[in-house]
Amino acid sequence: MRRCVYFILQTVLLAGCVSSSDGTMNRSLDSFRGESACYNRETEPYTAVVDTHLHYRPFDGKAIPFDEMNTYLSRTSVRFVNVYGIGQMLPANSSCSDYSKCPGIPVLPTTRNDFVNAENMLASAPDDLHLTLSMTFTDLSNPESTIALMALYEKEYPGMFHWMGEVNLVKQAQFNNHHVPASPQNIEQWADFMVELRVRNYPITIHSDIGNDANPTYYLHLMEKALARYPDNKIVWAHMGMSYQQTKMKASEHIAILSALLDQHPNLMLDISWRVLDDYYFSKKENQPLYVAFMNQYSERILPGSDFVAFRGNSYEVYQRELNATGRIHQYLDDNAFRNIVLGENYFKLLNLDYQAPAVCL
């Protein structure tokens, strides 16, 4: 059993770790407030304490109940979560639950999931997790209404939302469901809401495919345009730009693209969510050392995440499998990168949270 260190916090004796149902020990939320015992990588989990990419709502509205999803999280290493909806939903009267099997059925941006998440937070915010609500409604190819809807969110749920995304710049997986990539002209039209995001100091997570196996960098110019046009915004590039449409890019080429953009744009961050990265890139023997070296070098620019979608049929075991898969590469990071990425230091700094990652035991 993992060791549990007790410490005094606000004159109350609090356990520095909590027991899960399988007998392992994970740190409590309070253990990230101020100084805490160092993190022992030999005995504590390699999975992240923060899941910056978790969809509490699915495409069809049939979700794992909010409290149940939070119970799943409490059984893992995760204590900090970005509460994404899914900004694009199937029609309310559709019998389809998997858009990929329903070509022609629209999957279009909506506020529905975000409002459900906000109502759930008002009714039942957990004490043992830190949840950050994110606005996922934005249609980047039709951005005109975004600023007005942001004002509506603030009117209805003042001070509750602190992030935008995941929003789609280009997502090939939804081309058969009426998704239209944003054009360079559309990117220019983001100006008003990107200013508002800067004023509020909110990050924005953008899904933007680099390309596909036939044309490896076909869509890269769109993300390059967004970064060049909005250099002062905190932009998080979801999934390192990868997708199931692109599983054969050379690791060296992928890393070169990411490195160049990170060097050019100091406010860019990457998320390493979605198991497509581990399945097709990180886990390959010849690739792993390259990605580990890359993450060690750019350790202050990377955020972890599962990309789990809380469909009603999913379970705790499914979430834990996704967390393990997306976090597998964490085991090979150096201690500095492990603290920044896995133990949440990057996330805390990005959102100016009053938490800190523990030091890694020497």
CATH class category name: Alpha Beta
Give the terminus-to-terminus CA distance. Answer: 20 Å
Strand content: 15-25%
- Strand tally: 14
Number of domains: 1
Query: Roughly how much helix do the residues carry, as a percent range?
Result: 25-40%
Descriptive report:
With 362 residues, this protein is of the alpha/beta class. The chain has one domain (45-350): Metal-dependent hydrolases (TIM Barrel), CATH 3.20.20. The chain is built from twelve helices and 14 strands. The chain has helices at 66-74, 112-124, 146-156, 184-188, 191-200, 220-229, 251-264, 276-282, 288-297, 316-327, 335-342, 345-350; strands spanning 6-9, 12-15, 17-19, 25-27, 50-55, 80-84, 88-89, 108-109, 130-135, 161-170, 204-208, 235-237, 268-271, 302-303. An eight-stranded parallel beta sheet has the order 5-6-9-10-11-12-13-14. Keywords: Hydrolase. It holds the Pfam family Amidohydro_2.
Features:
362 residues; alpha/beta; TIM Barrel; 8-stranded parallel beta sheet; two-stranded antiparallel ribbon; 12 helices; 16% strand; disordered N terminus
